[in-house]
What we know:
The protein is an alpha/beta fold and 290 residues long. Helices cover 33% and strands 17% of the residues. The chain has a 7-stranded mixed beta sheet, with helices on both faces. α1 links the parallel β1 and β2 (41-47). α7 (210-230) crosses α8.
Amino acid sequence: MKVKFITCIYSDLYGTEFGGRPGRVGHYRWSLLSLLKMTDADFTCYTSEREIESLKEFFYNGYNISPERLEFKLFDITKTRHSENLYKIKKVAEIQKGDRCLEIQYLKFEWFDHEDGSYDYYYWIDAGLSHVGLFPNRYLTSTHLEQRYYECSLFNNDFLKQLIEFTDDKFFMIGKDNERNYWSGTVDTKWYTKYDRSIHVIGGLFGGHVSKWKHIVDLFDDYLTKIMVEDKDHPYEELIMSLMSVNHPELFNKKFFDTWWSENSGVKGLPDNYYEINKSFYKMFEELNQ
């Protein structure tokens, strides 16, 4: 069983016309290093000319990661299949102040088309997914000054094996409760066959068998193009994914959670039973380690 994760690192986009999270250079690298403990999978990481050499130095020379296991690929994020529509409606002044890059969100699906299809399963995973804000201290195993905030023991080959088994012959997605613990609005209700905003699908980890990807990518692109053209809107990728999960539930196997926080990262003053009645994000990863 051959498995590949697709990810990217563009850590210097904050304040530019693309938008992005600030101060993520170390975060993305240490987190991706943690994800690489899934040694039964290979990784492709897209990046820019500005960062590729320093990334190779960090992973290949600093931590002896093989280029066969982690391949860095250059990609110009100004050249995507949605660029023409996006730049007609994009509010650059707002995006410069934002922490999300629309181009990268949409490329999470487009980048699959750059694969040769030689792996059995493909998953998108955010390079920065492994961090102290999502996983409690008992799973953060490093004592390194920086790495200790990102090195999570839940990313391993047992997790990978059970992720594939859970995915089965569907497409894997993760959904967050969006009613008791509201997180996000949705696209216009007219796009739903039956409006339902109760679950918000997240874009940090998704995927499935190679045979399922083309249909999912086409579905995503079709919805996104129609919304951009008809509504003059550029929704986050998660809103399109949430729409897809409602309109086409038969395509997906989903894991669910209620709150992002763990016992170590939640705000103060929560009810004593908060973590009893709300399933934390990390518990899905626990389940896939059992």
